[in-house]
Task: structure prediction
Amino acid sequence: MPCRRKTENLPFLPSPSLDTMRQSLFFRQLARRLLSNVPESAVYGGPRPQEAARRVTVTTLRGKHRRGEPITVVTAYDYPSAVHVDSAGIDVCLVGDSAAMVVHGHDTTLPISLDLMLEHCRAVARGAPRPLLVGDLPFGCYESSAAQAVDSAVRVLKEGGMDAIKLEGGAPSRISAAKAIVESGIAVMGHVGLTPQAISVLGGFRPQGKTVDSAVKVVETALALQEAGCFSVVLECVPAPVAAAATSALQIPTIGIGAGPFCSGQVLVYHDLLGMLQHPHHAKVTPKFCKRFGNVGDVINKALSEYKQEVETRSFPGPSHTPYKITPTDVDGFATALQKMGLSEAADAAAAAAAENSEEDGRPKENS
Result:
């Protein structure tokens, strides 16, 4: 007689209601934004979940601006740097098209594509659930028309996992693009002063606002971006009085980079502020205004040199970094199996390694 499962003593479980299913779907979607797809119990670990209430939004920035509290912004391009930015409590993480120069080694920001930017955006989104995430629209993906700009901005949010986008410049077509993107329901950060995507017109990476006409243009462009609906404007490489005037004239936050202390907040590139890279190319593209808050590059170089030396002298890996064991009985069985396969040298190598590892395990530990 077939075995039947006893059910008479089990409690009655009603089918989930539509409201319950909707709530379950909501929390699953929320979890995707707040949690890594790597479980915390995995071999390599994973980030801790973040509380939704702690997330920085455009409203958060408006509140800080209203209270006169400085806004912190860091430009980052990948998962590890995003985790650091998140852990430090930075307000905004900007995924900049400067990745073309800092990460990919180009001399300008122009070569990077929207598809490649989306890869950087996705990596940062996985590592930084707390800050407001802003993705740059790279050169060539929003200049042709307002429709092109909206399509590109939609991709940055839907495919890149960003909360907002940033676009450069104050030409009428770009003002129109910013307005169209805002009207489509996407938050926009503007960018005036030195706009790296316009170096063809500017004649290189040149500071702006150093003459009366140029200074007035910076302020006028910032006001036009505010009128278009931007929630914030980056002021890059302009004299401090010009930045102060723009900050005073605007009702939205200004984020300075090489623009002095009178902005509503500041932004620097992750690699620059950490002093991470000493390569001649990076030295060439590191801006004069950047303060190094660390010399991580020296630490990295020292660590890599020590690693190279220990590998070459066979002092790494030692016993403490050889954690996976096989019992002596299994070693003998393994060696026997190898010999039957005609691999006598491999069997001898396995036996010798097991013996050496056993001897090392018996030695006193360092600092014991």
Notes: The mean pLDDT is 82. The longest helix spans residues 344-362.
